[in-house]
Amino acid sequence: MQMAHLLSPVLWFLAFVLFLLIVVAPSAAVVEDNAFVVSLHELKFGDDEFGFSSSTSAPQRPRTQKGATILELRHHSTLSKHKKHQNLLKMDEARATSIQAQIKNYNKFEKKKEFSSEAAQLPLSSGVKLQTLNYVTTITIGSTNTTVIVDTGSDLTWVQCTPCTACYTQQDPLFNPSSSPTYLSVLCNSTTCTTSLQAATGISGSCSQDRNNCFYALGYGDGSYTRGILAQETIALGDVQVPNFIFGCGRSNRGLFGGTSGLMGLGRTQLSLVSQTTDQFGGVFSYCLPTKLYNSSGSLVFGNGTSTFKNVTPVSYTRMIADPTLAPFYFLNITGASVGGIPINASGFANGKILIDSGTVITRLPPSIYKSLKAEFMAQFSAYPSAAGFSILDTCFNLSGYDEVRVPTLKLEFEGDVDVSVDVSGILYFVKKDGSQVCLALASLSYEDQVGIIGNYQQKNQRVVYDTVGSRLGFAKEPCSYS
Ligand SMILES: *[C@@H]1O[C@H](CO)[C@@H](O)[C@H](O)[C@H]1NC(C)=O
Ligand SMILES: *[C@@H]1O[C@H](CO)[C@@H](O)[C@H](O)[C@H]1NC(C)=O
Ligand SMILES: *[C@@H]1O[C@H](CO)[C@@H](O)[C@H](O)[C@H]1NC(C)=O
Ligand SMILES: *[C@@H]1O[C@H](CO)[C@@H](O)[C@H](O)[C@H]1NC(C)=O
Ligand SMILES: *[C@@H]1O[C@H](CO)[C@@H](O)[C@H](O)[C@H]1NC(C)=O
Ligand SMILES: *[C@@H]1O[C@H](CO)[C@@H](O)[C@H](O)[C@H]1NC(C)=O
Ligand SMILES: *[C@@H]1O[C@H](CO)[C@@H](O)[C@H](O)[C@H]1NC(C)=O
Questions:
Q1: Residues of the chain with CATH 2.40.70.10
Q2: Which atom of ligand 7 lies nearest, measured to the CA of 333?
Q3: Is 426 within 8 Å of 459 (Cβ atoms)?
Q4: Domain 312-477 classification at class level
Q5: Is the dihedral of CA 470, 331, 368, 411 positive or negative?
Q6: Best mutation site among 45, 295, 482 for ligand 3, i.e. most ligand atoms within 8 A of its Cβ?
Q7: Which of 43-47, 362-366, 367-371 comes out lowest in average pLDDT?
Q8: Considering only the top CATH level, what class is 63-300?
C-alpha cells in the first residue's frame, strides 16, 4: 500500500515527461557533422498525410518591402495520389530529355548558321513539361489576377486570352484584352516580333494579314503548345506596376497546364520577365521552395531582397557561365561534391557545366559524377537493406524496419568555393509511404557529354538568388515553408 502511494506520483511525473518528449519536443532533425539523424516519420517531407506539419505562420502575402516585391510561391500538383510518383518521375524524365534535345538543337543551329539560315526556323521545344513545373504564383495582368506556373527554363510569359479558339480549363477567369484599356498588340514589323521572339521561343513571329498583329507559337516536347498574339499590357507583381510588358495572349492552347492561366518565363533572354523588369528590379529575382507538397508556400522575390530573406547562412555567389547559344538556361560550374563530408572524385567535374532549373524535379548528374557519388553514399548507408530501383532512381532502400535513420549530408560545390548543403528533405525520395522503398533522390544522365541539371527537389529550403546583371547565382540556407 505504502509503495503504491509513493509510486503513483512518480509514475505520473514520468508519464508527463514522456508526454513532453513526444508531443512538445521540437521536430528538428539532429544534425551531426556529416549526417542528419532523423526519424523515418519526419523524413516523409513531401507527404502531408503522414509528414510533419511544421510551421503555422501565415502564408506570404504579396507585398513590397525595402525595395523588393515578395510574392507567394505555392507548390502545385494536379496529379492524383494514384500513380503519383510514377507519373511525376516519368514527366520529369520527359522534361530532362527535352532540355537535352533543346541544347543539342541550339548547338546544331550554331554550327549550321554559316551554311543556312533555315535552322533558325525550327520551332524548338522549350523543354517544359508543365505538370512537373510544380511551383505557381499569382500576378495581375491588366486588372485580372492570374495564377501562372513559374519557370526559369523558358522566357515567354503567356496567359490564355479571349477570344479563344481552343483553351483548356483554367481556374481564374480568362483574360479579356478588349476590356483592358492598357492592352496593345505588338506590330509584326517590330524587332520584338522578330529578333526577341526568335531568341525567346526559337521561332520568329509571323504577321497577320493586316500586319497589325504578331503571331507567336511555342511548342512543347509533349505536344502541348500555346499560340496567339504577342501583346503588351500593364502587369502588376504585388503592388509594383510594370507598364508595356510583352507577353503572349494565347488563343489556342493545349496541354496539361493543371488549371493555371499560363506561365511566367524567367529565363535569360530579353523577353523574359526578369529582363523586362530590369528597370524596376535590377535584373534580380530569388525564390525559396518549400519542402511540403501541399498547403505550404515559399516566396518569389523580385529585386534585391537581401534584407527580407530569412536566410540562416550568408548568400554566397557563384559565376553564371555565359552561353549565348543556349538561350533561356542558367548555367553554373559544378566543381565538386561530397557525401557525409567525404569528397567525391570524378572526371565529370573537369568540365563542370550544369544548368539550374526550377522545373526539373530530380537532379541529373553526368555518369562519372553520379557513379562515384552513388558508391560513396552506398558505402555510408550500407547499414540499411537495399530495395528495388524505381523509375529513374536506381539507389533504393527498405527503411521500414527503422525508427531513426542516419542520412549522410550531401554537398554540391560550385566555382568560387560555394558550398551548397542539400536540405535533408532533398536527399531521399519516398516511393512507398511505409518506408519499404526509399531512394537516393538523384539520377544519372545517359551520356557524359549531356548537360547536368540541378533540379528543384535539391533546391528546397534554399534561397536561390538569380542576379542576371551581375551574372552570378547565390545560395543560402533558408527555411521556406510559411504555412
Ligand atoms: C487581386 O489580388 C490582390 C492581392 O492579393 C487583391 O488585393 C485583390 O483584391 C485581387 N483582385 C481581384 C479582382 O480579385
Ligand atoms: C510598321 O508598320 C506600321 C503599320 O502597320 C507602320 O506605321 C510603321 O511605320 C512600320 N514600322 C516600321 C519600322 O517599318
Ligand atoms: C489543404 O488545406 C485544405 C484547407 O485547410 C484542406 O481541405 C486540404 O485537405 C489540405 N490538403 C492537404 C493535402 O493537406
Ligand atoms: C543586394 O544588396 C546587398 C547590400 O547592399 C549587396 O551586398 C548584394 O550584393 C546585393 N545583391 C544583389 C544580387 O544585387
Ligand atoms: C579522391 O582523390 C584524393 C586525391 O587524389 C584521394 O585522397 C581521395 O581518397 C579520393 N576520394 C575518393 C572518395 O576516392
Ligand atoms: C522491408 O523490411 C521489413 C522489416 O525489416 C520487412 O518486413 C519487409 O518484408 C521488407 N519489405 C520488402 C519489400 O522487402
Ligand atoms: C570551372 O571552375 C574550375 C575551377 O575554378 C575551372 O578550372 C574550370 O575551367 C571552370 N569550368 C568552366 C566551364 O568554366
A1: 63-300, 312-477
A2: 1
A3: yes
A4: mainly beta
A5: positive
A6: 295
A7: 43-47
A8: mainly beta
